[in-house]
Design a protein that fits this description.
Helix content: 10-25%
Signal peptide: 1-25
Protein name: Carboxypeptidase regulatory-like domain-containing protein
Largest sheet: 4 strands, mixed
Organism: Planctopirus hydrillae
Keywords: Signal
Number of strands: 10
CATH class: Mainly Beta
Length: 133
């Protein structure tokens, strides 16, 4: 249940960013990259972008089956990146996202997975490599 609420909050945050003026036509907000876990491309990894020295989430992204993500961030600057990878259970009626397969190891904004620096224009930071161990 907590995961469903969190996912709903992520969707709401993305909608709020779009409404507040950060759109696909506003190129200064785009960050595109790739994520691997144990050197494998993975689907369904959530990335959360925090302004440096803050726990506030200002942007989110989710990897596609090829491990790629696209995030729209509000301004140029330095961001702390945290991540989680929920177990997914699919049945005929719904998709349920469960516990973090990474055990919460990369969810602390004060000890983030990595930092990225975003400048105006399109940004292509290096691949984010995560260890599941």
């Amino acid at each position: 249940m907590k995961c469903r609420l969190f996912v709903a909050a992520l969707v709401s945050l993305n909608l709020l960013m779009i409404i507040s003026g950060c759109s696909l036509s506003d190129q200064k907000c785009l960050v595109s990259g790739q994520v691997t876990i144990d050197s494998q491309l993975v689907d369904g990894v959530y990335l959360l972008f925090h302004q440096e020295h803050s726990s506030d989430v200002v942007g989110t992204a989710r990897t596609d089956p090829s491990g790629h993500y696209l995030a729209k961030l509000p301004v140029a600057g330095r961001y702390a990146v945290t991540a989680f990878w929920p177990r997914v259970i699919r049945n005929a009626e719904e998709t349920i996202e469960g516990e973090d397969r990474l055990g919460g190891k990369y969810r602390d904004s004060l000890n983030p997975l990595t930092f990225i620096t975003v400048s105006n224009g399109e940004n292509y930071p290096p691949a984010i490599n995560i260890s599941s161990r």
